[in-house]
Amino acid sequence: MSNELLLASSVFVLIGLLLSAVFMLTKYLGPSRKDGVNKNTVYESGVSNPVGGTNIKFSIKFYIVAILFVIFDVEIIFMFPWAVNVRELGYLGLGEMFTFMALLFAGLIYIYKKKALLWD
User: Fold this and answer.
1) Phi first, then psi: what are they for 113, rounded to 5°?
2) Which candidate among 22, 33, 90, 110 keeps its CA 20 to 30 Å from the CA of 81?
3) How does the average pLDDT of the chain come out, rounded?
């Protein structure tokens, strides 16, 4: 076995042991846990006594709109590099971007026809 491999292995094991020791020492070196009444009370958005239950069911429309927003927002990630390099890509890059935009537009028309954006 080569000396470099032996050294690398021993350093790897030493770091693993050192990290394990540090994680175990934090129990003794860190602050002590004292369970208090104030620590376990409910506090959300400035309201200390919430009204109602926590298991509120949201309409599926919220999730559909959120997913659609993410899908159509991610298109900007693809369009920005194209816009930066539009001259270097030439007409082929322009055609590819028009194809990409046509597919997105077709998806938007499909969503509109399915009435996924209507709030009934």
Assistant:
1) -65, -35
2) 110
3) 83
